[in-house]
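Convert to structure. Protein one:
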Amino acid sequence: MGDYAEKYGYYGSGEALVVADGEEVWVFHVTPDDTAESAVWAAQRVPKGHATIVPNTFIIREIDPADGDNFLYSTNMYDIALRYGWWDGSGLLDFAYAFGAGEQGHPYVSGRRIWRGLSLFAPSLNLDPTLGVEWEHPTYPFSVKPDEPITIDFMRRLYRDHMEGTPYDLTGHVVAGGPFKTPVRYPGGRAEETFQHGAWERAISEEHSYYGFIAVTYKNKYNVVYFAPSSPHGSLFVPIIVKPNQTVKSIPCLEYAWQGAVNDSSLWWAAETVANVMDLKYMYMINDVRKAQFEIEHKIDEMMATESPDDIEKKMADYDDSIQREWMNMHYTLLGQYQNGYTNWGYSKAGYGPSTEWLQAAGFQDFEATPEQFAALRKRFEETQKQADSIRNAALASAKEEL
């Protein structure tokens, strides 16, 4: 990859990737060079048994040229860094400092993601959430040894994370999440331009996430990609069998993800509709969605554990399409269950309103009426209800006598 980038060039903003097979994992960074004809790149091996987070920013820091087992880099890297004063020619070159720009957007746009991801892998480290990504020096470790073995289910939860249970929990803000605490913070509004120092936290799962995937690699064996189109918190991770030297067979529900028109056969659109509907009453709907995700994905896990890769591959397209239909129906289920401020099933319904905290913040208690008006109304209603009950009871008693 690096050699091709040097030979044929690389255009656009820098990119940070993870490359893995059944034996090793590398973090790969690439950016254009100063001739517009080649590229600068570097790669660092992730230690065995470690996990890392690469959140749209360079994380490779000091490169040891004497450690060829763990570091690779382009032939022009040192010359370019030296020519522009990004490295003084002594000591180890810091790739992120020389060829990156640190945080973009706000001071924690990537740093909080790194902190959260590494903290989910290894909570015992008690990492500081306020360090951010500093341009001048490293703040967080390149990788960590997880406290517990990493499972597919753990990775699903990580992809769907909104920093729940932390001071930065996007589902816990009384005002910003609206009456039903959605974690979604739509960016780019013109009103935001009036606040020079304002920003929202950036979660791992976001409303503009286009997909998430979990690639499981084995040595001398087939591989599996669990693919979740759209925002992971509103999507499902469906399996794709990937065999060496073979193209993946067509899976119709994964072929369409154009945002210009809804397609009811697309898993991307099924997930997108679920995620958008959840915004209406997130703090209630998320429980139903998580339950459905667990049930469907648990069946997938059972299939992957009990059936052969060949058998799974044969039925994969039809199987994933059936999941797509089930998930497209999920948003109708949510709309039906939580319509008009209630849960409606059969003849019973219960109100699901905002929290007390949100009502207070919204000024519910400041309605323009005096306490005396409220008291008189309630007293009058109570007296009227008593009269109505008396009339009804008398009518029922009379009807019983006639029977």
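Protein two, convert as well:
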Amino acid sequence: MERPRIRHIALNVKDRDKEAEYYKKVFGMEEKSRGPNGTIYLSDGHVGVALISRSEMPWGINHFGFQVDSINQIEEIAETTAVANSAAAVGESMIYDSEGYRVDISVEGWPI
């Protein structure tokens, strides 16, 4: 199995546009798209950053995602069952780490 790679990070922010401008200016990230719910997707060409804004959730890192060779293999290693993410693309699931943090896993990865 090839080593899984972090491919996206979702940040829950108060002002998506302001944060997008910051990451574009300071880190040279490129805006890739905007979701129907207002999510802004940025990329450095290797890792994507999704800027979400959900006031009912804590501000900061919401979740992150790894591209993997096999979701089943990750389930076995993690000794857990991945949950299909109904809001995501086919082939994307999520697990929760030992402290309850959400970790997305995908064989196809995400647009970067």
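Strands lie at 5-12, 30-34, 40-43, 48-52, 60-67, 83-84, 92-96, 102-106. The longest helix spans residues 16-27.
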